[in-house]
Amino acid sequence: MSTIRIGQIDYTNVWPIFYHFRPEQTLSPVELVPAVPSTLNKAMKEGNIDMGPISAFAYGVSSKDYVLFPDLSVSAYGAVNSILLFLNKPLIEALEGTIALTTSSATSINLFKIIAKKRYGAQPNYIPMDPQLDRMMENADAALLIGDHAIRAYWDNEQHGRYQVLDLGQMWQEWTGHWMTFAVWAVRKQALVSHPSDIGRIVEAFEQSKQKSIHSPDPLIQTAVQRVGGTEQFWRHYFANLNYDFGPRQQQGLQLYFKYAYELGLIDHHVQLDIWSENKVG
Asked: Which superfamily is assigned to 83-176 in CATH?
């Protein structure tokens, strides 16, 4: 029997779903493949990984090849605390200049482009840069960081107070009134055909890990303090503020994101969300 290759991202925002996940407990031929998000997105698209978390935008680009799991995502209704825009001038002025964009996340980059164009009618000059805030700000009026890079830059800015900080999740929610989903759990349709019963057990194991992390967050919080830094209070708030479901409210917000992405030419087709169920094969 062929092995089911599951992509694994080591960003703190996905930890709750992976923290208690044990491949051997699925009784399925599973291999975890560590990867950064951009590598995982590419490997999923090329069929070298069968399932796992991918950026919401990556799903949109290749939606015809994937099915989404209904109860797994990284979403927020408001502030997400790790997708942050750092500004050295007021937002409206910055939108008339240059914005440095992290190379780490297509979802967040395009979320910012949607907000800039649709909400403010702005088309700033965008430059892709590695996620190093001070170097980014030498070349731009604002910089977008995500994930642990954003968190550490936020901590540093709290000490030095050099930049104004805006949260993209909060900007989206205040503008649209909707949830924003940043990562989804996807499976390639071919893997559903090859491993229908295994996929069900794997989804159940991820869901159990998620629920255990939500109901008993202390081990997760301690690990974050030890590995990343910061305080227990920060991480307790951070994990509690994120949402790991993917129900109707999250799906509605993501559908709006894809609608705007299509209207702005960021995606070349209308995206429909194809949601997995127990009896879905292919």
From this structure: Periplasmic binding protein-like II (3.40.190.10)
